């Protein structure tokens, strides 16, 4: 079986405490996972021309693609991919060189592009397209293509953001426990 971790130019992914990476995922290069993070089947993450950082208790679900934008003379920092704490990234999402705050739900099939900044406590609807450089204000639901602010999150939705992250921490703990017992 292949390792889901691959170095690039001598830099290997670093994995936080009690994190889970599915064997079918692939993480390449300059990637940092926080504690209790989970990476699910068929995730492809390339920290080759810039870096990726994923915060504590965040989860990246099946088939998601994570990538970055290279550094250039006109953009010396390029666009790294920065994902906060307690973030849930739904199946088949694509995040490219963007910055995602804490307690965010990225819906299935959503696309977030270079330089986009997503505030904390945000829900991005399934299939949503967040264009390059767009800023999503904290505390709102965004839907559509391109993404538009739909309405403020209610208390139940705000609570669900943490519940979702906690559910994935429990699930990854089950997977880690199962792996240890086999």
Automatic annotation (TrEMBL):
<dbReference type="Pfam" id="PF00132">
    <property type="entry name" value="Hexapep"/>
</dbReference>
<protein>
    <submittedName>
        <fullName>Gamma carbonic anhydrase family protein</fullName>
    </submittedName>
</protein>
<dbReference type="InterPro" id="IPR011004">
    <property type="entry name" value="Trimer_LpxA-like_sf"/>
</dbReference>
<dbReference type="InterPro" id="IPR001451">
    <property type="entry name" value="Hexapep"/>
</dbReference>
<dbReference type="InterPro" id="IPR050484">
    <property type="entry name" value="Transf_Hexapept/Carb_Anhydrase"/>
</dbReference>
<dbReference type="InterPro" id="IPR047324">
    <property type="entry name" value="LbH_gamma_CA-like"/>
</dbReference>
């Amino acid at each position: 079986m292949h390792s889901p971790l691959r170095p690039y130019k001598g830099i290997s992914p670093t994995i936080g405490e009690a994190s889970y990476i599915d064997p079918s995922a692939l993480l390449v290069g300059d990637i940092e996972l926080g504690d209790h993070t989970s990476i699910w089947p068929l995730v492809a993450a390339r920290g080759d021309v810039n870096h990726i950082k994923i915060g504590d208790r965040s989860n990246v679900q099946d088939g998601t693609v994570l990538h970055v934008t290279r550094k250039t003379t006109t953009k010396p920092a390029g666009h790294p991919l920065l994902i906060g704490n307690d973030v849930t990234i739904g199946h088949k999402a694509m995040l490219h060189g963007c910055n995602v705050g804490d307690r965010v739900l990225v819906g299935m099939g959503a696309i977030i592009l270079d330089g986009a900044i997503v505030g904390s406590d945000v829900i991005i609807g399934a299939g949503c397209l967040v264009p390059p450089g767009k800023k999503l204000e904290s505390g709102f639901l965004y839907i559509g293509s391109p993404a538009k602010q739909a309405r403020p999150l209610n208390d139940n939705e705000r609570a669900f953001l943490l519940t979702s992250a906690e559910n994935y921490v429990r699930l990854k703990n089950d997977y880690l426990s199962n792996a240890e017992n086999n």
